[in-house]
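Dear colleague,

Thank you for sharing your sequence with our group. We've completed the structure prediction you requested, and as agreed, I am returning the results in plain text so they can be pasted directly into your records. Please verify that the sequence below matches your submission; if there's any discrepancy, let me know and we will rerun it promptly.
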Amino acid sequence: MSARTGQDLSLTPRWLGIFGWVAFALLVFTQAFGILTSPPDRDMGDLQKIMYAHVPAASVALLAYGVVFLFGVLYLWKRDLRYDLVAASAAQVGAVFTAAGLVTGSIWARPTWNVWWTWDARLTSMAVLFLMYVGYLVLRAFTEDEIRRAKWSAAIACLGFINSFIVYMSVRWWRTIHQMQSTGGTVDSRYGRSLGFNMLAMVLVFAYLIIARYRLARVVRDVEARIEDRALAPQAEKVHV
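Please find the predicted structure tokens below.
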């Protein structure tokens, strides 16, 4: 229970635990469903099935930065630190999904392009996005004043959002060896169905992780506030005397 808000801030309330188990179980099921039921691709064979992890992870990485940007702007507008904590939670989770997208993409690129990495526009802009996430988190780690930290973090979120748009449009703006975004009309239904299920499962996992990380951040902030209040209490009593 938060002393300042009166809200229950236990780390794993029952509903959140159930939601987490369901989200992760669904992700395991959809991954297995995609791998076991979709036929090998004509050109890439079974290597194609890595897209069930790569595409959702990369998509969620962009979604996460959208959340960081949205709640950063909300903080600048409302000056409510809860929005800043949501943005920070999304950045932490988004960094993980961005790294997963880069790693799975490299695993796919090695047998397909014969290189682990190439300075393709899509890959380079995605790497920049990961660095933006890291820079955002490093800034927060080394800025003690929470108001200044929130303002600076929101500024970085705005800059990073521009790059996330570049990531999405890079395959349209430049000549790139990375394929363009697929749509329902360009993907065989045998693959599109599994890809859609995995996308849904990955978004649910993303939502669970953000909620869990936000609640943890609220608990940490509440504990720090209590410690600060206890440290200031003796001084207040001396002044009163």
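Summary note from our side: The CA atoms of residues 184 and 192 lie 7 Å apart.

Kind regards,
the structure core
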